[in-house]
Amino acid sequence: MYYLKNSLLLILILTLLITMVGCNKQEYTINKINVDEIYTQEDNEYYVYFYQKNCPYCEDCFEVINEYINNPSELNLYVCDLTNNQEIKRKNQSGQGPDGGYLVDNVSDYKNLWIAGVPSLIKIKENDNSYYVTSGRKNILAYIEYLNDKENHKHNYVDGKCICGEIETKEE
């Protein structure tokens, strides 16, 4: 009887521990928008971060994005889940981005938007036109870090251009 009680107690403790570990996923306070709301926000200038559920690279970005959103900042950032919104998750042949797969620049209607992959970040200005900013975990994290501390930003040039937009000049 003694062993039976201890066994049941041990099973109960293990079950609770497994449940607690499984529920350890952090929830974020973020401004979620639907695809049809991408161009309808009231802010004059804002960013839209595209992600999908079960994307480990997207999850890595959420921690930094959440920290940035919950601190007073100039950045108006919205997030849009493309898990069930395949209508704009498509690949263009001659657009923006590293392989031309994005059609974002000067688009003002979500039906004309092409987002080749996640995670991705675009900027929308007051005239409701959008602009490709960057894509991929490393680039998004670098861009948000740049936005967070523009004054102390150290230029990191890739193919002659920094994430902040500055073009590398060669000194002769």
Biggest sheet, open or closed, and with what strands and sense? 5 strands, mixed
Q: Tell me the strand percentage band.
A: 15-25%
Cα-atom Rg, whole angstroms? 21 Å
Low-confidence stretches: 19-28
Sketch the topology as an H/E string, one letter per element: HEEHEEEHEE
Q: Which secondary-structure class do the elements indicate? A: alpha/beta
- By CATH, the architecture is named 3-Layer(aba) Sandwich
List the domain count as a whole number: 1
Distance between the termini: 86 Å
**Topology, number of strands:** 7
Named CATH topology: Glutaredoxin
Shape verdict: globular
- Order of strands side by side in the largest beta sheet? 1-3-2-4-5
General description of the model:
By secondary structure, the protein is of the alpha/beta class. It has helices at residues 2-22, 56-69, 137-148, and strands at residues 32-33, 46-51, 77-81, 120-124, 130-135, 157-158, 161-162. It has one domain: Glutaredoxin. The chain is built from three helices and seven strands, in the order αββαβββαββ. The protein is globular, with a radius of gyration of 21 Å. Strands 1-3-2-4-5 form a five-stranded mixed sheet, with helices on one face. It has a two-stranded antiparallel sheet with strand order 6-7. Mean pLDDT is 77; it is low at 19-28.
